[in-house]
Design brief:
The complex is a heterodimer. Chain A is an all-alpha fold. Chain A contains 13 helices and no strands. In chain B, about 80% of the residues lie in helices and about 0% in strands. Chain B contains twelve helices and two strands, in the order αββααααααααααα. In chain B, helix 6 runs antiparallel to helix 9, helix 6 packs across helix 10 and helix 7 runs antiparallel to helix 8. Classes of the chains: A mainly alpha, B mainly alpha.
Chain lengths: ~290, ~270
C-alpha cells in the first residue's frame, strides 16, 4: 500500500510549486478576466471584457502582429538551424572551438540578444557603418530603420539569433546519435545524398525538430523582453500590451490585461497539447529503430 | 561529393560568423570611449563602464553578488525538489503519470507574463511580493520543467537496479543516495544545474514584477541602459553577465568533476 503512494509523495514538492504558483496564477488570472476582482470591488462574473477586447481593433492588430513575428522568426530559425546542424555534421572535422562556439547564444539572455541586434541594426549601427564605408549609403538616414519598425525586423532577428543555435544544438545531438548504418545502407543501395537527407535523416529528426519548433514558437509568442525593448509603439506585441494594461493606475483596467493573458495562455496550452503529441510520435519512432 | 562538402563548409562558417560577430561587437563596445559615426572602429578606448560597475559606491557589485546568490539558491532548491520528482517519473509506473509529466512541462510553453500577473495579487496578500523569498519562489516555476525533463531522462537510463543492490547489501537509504545515486547522475545533475542557473539569472519580468523594484538583479540594472540606447554601459553589463554565467558554469563543472574523481573507484 505504501509503495502505491510513493511516486505521488516524491512528486509532491514539485507539484506544490507548479499547482501553487503556476496553476494558481493562471486560475486567478482567469477569474480576473471574467471580471471577478474583489480587491477593487468587482464581484460579478461577466464576459464583457472578453467581448470588448476580442472586438477591439487595436487588440486584433496586436494579435496579428504577434502571430506574424513569432511564426516568421521560429520558422526561419527552424530552417536555418537544421541547415547549420547538417552542415556541421557534414564537414567531417568536428572538433575544435568553432564547432562548439555556435552554442554560445544559448546562454545569452534575450535582453542581451536585443542589445546585440540594436548594436548592429540601428541607423548608427555597425551594418550602416559598413554600408557607408562601402559607399552604398552616404548618410545615416538612408539606412532603413530596422529597429522599432512596423515590420518587426529587429524582433525577428533577435529571436533568430537565439533560436538558430537552439534548434541546431538539438538537431545536431539527434543527428550524431543516428546510426551510420542507416545512411550507409541507403547509399549502398544507390540513394544519393539528397535522398538520404529527405528520406532517412529528416523523418528520424522530425519529432525533435517539431518539439523544439513548438518551444521557440511558444516562447516568441509570449515573451516580454525583446518586444518591450525593440518593438514599435504601435502595434504592440501582446505581452507588452498586457503589461501596459496591467500597470494602469486605474485598477478596473486589470480584467483587460487578464483577458490578453488568457489569450496568450490558451494559445500556448494548445501548443502544449501538440508538444505532448510529438513526444508520443517520438516514442513510436524509438520502437521502430 | 567534394563540391558538396565545400558548400556545407561555407554555409557553416557563414552562419557561425553571423551568430558570433555581434558578440565581438559587444565586447568592443564595452571598451569604447568615443565611437562616432561613421567610424568602423572606435576612436578611443576606455574602461569607464567597468570602472562604474566595480566602483563600490554604485552598488552594481552588490547587485551582481545578489543575482549570483539568488540564482544559486534557486538552482539548489530546484534540483532538490526535482530529483525525487524525476525519479518518480523516470523509474516508476503509476496512474496519471502522463498528466503529471505534461503539467510539469507546461511552464516552458505557457508565457510567464500570464502566470506572474495572475499570481501577483496572491503574493501581495501572502506578504511574498517585494521579498527575496517571493522572487525565489516565482523563479522556481520556469526552472522546474528543465530540471525535471533532464533528470527524468537520466533516471530512465540508470534505473533502480544499482540502488537495489546497495540496499540488499545493507546500505541505508541515505548511504545509497549519496554513494550510488548521486555519482551515477552527476553528469545529468551538472547539465540540469547549469541550465537552471542560466534560466534564473536571465529572468527579467518575473523578478521585476514580483520583486517590485526592491529586489534588483543584473538584468534589471541592464534594462534601462538598453532602453536609453547607452550602448557602452549596456554592453559592459552584458559582458559582465556573460562572464559571470560562464564562471559559475565552470565552478559547477569543477565541483561535479571533483566529486566524480572521489567516487571513481565505483567504476573500476
Amino acid at each position: 500500500m505504501l509503495k502505491k503512494f510513493k511516486p505521488y509523495v516524491m512528486l509532491a514538492p514539485v507539484m506544490f510549486i507548479i499547482l501553487g504558483i503556476f496553476t494558481m496564477g493562471l486560475a486567478l488570472g482567469f477569474f480576473q478576466s471574467l471580471g471577478y476582482f474583489p480587491a477593487v470591488g468587482l464581484k460579478e462574473f461577466t464576459l464583457r471584457y472578453y467581448k470588448e477586447v476580442l472586438t477591439d481593433i487595436g487588440f486584433l492588430d496586436s494579435l496579428k502582429f504577434t502571430l506574424y513575428t513569432s511564426f516568421v522568426s521560429s520558422t526561419l530559425a527552424l530552417i536555418i538551424g537544421v541547415l547549420l546542424a547538417y552542415s556541421i555534421f557534414q564537414s567531417k572535422s568536428r572538433k575544435g572551438v568553432l564547432y562548439t562556439i555556435y552554442k554560445l547564444p544559448v546562454i545569452v539572455p534575450h535582453s542581451i540578444a536585443a542589445l546585440l541586434v540594436f548594436n548592429v541594426l540601428t541607423q548608427s549601427g555597425i551594418l550602416a557603418r559598413v554600408l557607408f564605408y562601402l559607399g552604398i549609403i552616404s548618410e545615416q538616414t538612408q539606412f532603413p530603420s530596422l529597429i522599432f519598425d512596423q515590420n518587426g525586423i529587429g524582433i525577428i532577428i533577435s529571436y533568430l539569433w537565439k533560436g538558430i543555435p537552439f534548434i541546431a544544438m538539438t538537431v545536431y545531438t539527434v543527428l550524431s546519435n543516428i546510426n551510420d548504418k542507416l545512411t550507409d545502407a541507403a547509399l549502398n543501395l544507390g540513394a544519393n545524398r539528397r535522398q538520404v537527407f529527405w528520406k532517412i535523416l529528416l523523418p528520424l529528426l522530425m519529432p525533435s525538430i517539431l518539439s523544439s519548433y513548438i518551444i521557440i514558437f511558444a516562447f516568441s509568442f509570449g515573451a516580454f523582453e525583446i518586444p518591450y525593448l525593440l518593438g514599435p509603439t504601435s502595434p504592440k506585441l501582446l505581452p507588452v500590451k498586457a503589461y501596459i494594461e496591467y500597470i494602469n493606475p486605474d485598477l478596473s483596467h486589470r480584467p483587460y490585461s487578464m483577458v490578453i493573458n488568457m489569450v496568450l495562455a490558451s494559445y500556448s496550452l494548445i501548443l502544449v497539447w501538440f508538444y505532448s503529441k510529438t513526444f508520443k510520435l517520438f516514442s513510436k519512432f524509438d520502437e521502430i529503430s | 561529393m567534394k563540391k558538396n562538402n565545400y558548400i556545407f563548409k561555407i554555409t557553416m562558417y557563414l552562419l557561425i560568423f553571423l551568430l558570433i560577430s555581434p558578440l565581438v561587437i559587444l565586447v568592443i563596445w564595452s571598451f569604447v570611449r568615443i565611437w562616432p559615426w561613421p567610424n568602423l572602429l572606435p576612436r578611443d578606448y576606455g574602461l569607464r563602464g567597468f570602472k562604474h560597475v566595480l566602483d563600490p559606491s554604485t552598488k552594481s557589485l552588490r547587485v551582481l553578488f545578489l543575482s549570483v546568490g539568488l540564482s544559486s539558491l534557486v538552482t539548489l532548491c530546484t534540483l532538490l525538489i526535482s530529483i525525487p520528482a524525476a525519479k518518480a517519473l523516470g523509474v516508476y509506473e503509476f496512474r496519471g503519470k502522463g498528466f503529471f509529466k505534461m503539467l510539469i512541462l507546461a511552464p516552458i510553453i505557457v508565457p510567464p507574463v500570464a502566470v506572474a500577473m495572475g499570481i501577483h495579487i496572491a503574493f501581495i496578500k501572502l506578504g511574498l511580493a517585494n521579498t527575496f523569498l517571493g522572487v525565489v519562489f516565482v523563479h522556481l516555476v520556469p526552472c522546474i520543467p528543465y530540471a525535471v525533463r533532464i533528470l527524468t531522462n537520466v533516471f530512465e537510463i540508470i534505473g533502480e537496479s544499482m540502488e537495489m543492490q546497495a540496499r540488499v547489501l545493507g546500505a541505508s537509504p541515505l548511504q545509497t543516495f549519496i554513494k550510488i545515486t548521486l555519482p551515477l547522475m552527476a553528469p545529468g545533475l551538472l547539465s540540469a544545474g547549469s541550465l537552471v542557473f542560466i534560466v534564473s539569472l536571465s529572468q527579467y519580468f518575473l523578478t521585476f514584477l514580483i520583486g517590485g523594484g526592491r529586489i534588483i538583479t543584473l538584468p534589471m540594472l541592464m534594462f534601462p541602459y538598453i532602453q536609453s540606447g547607452d550602448r557602452m554601459m549596456a554592453s559592459t553589463y552584458s559582458i559582465i553577465f556573460i562572464v559571470t554565467a560562464l564562471i559559475m558554469l565552470l565552478i559547477m563543472e569543477r565541483i561535479v568533476r571533483n566529486y566524480y574523481k572521489e567516487q571513481n573507484y565505483f567504476y573500476i
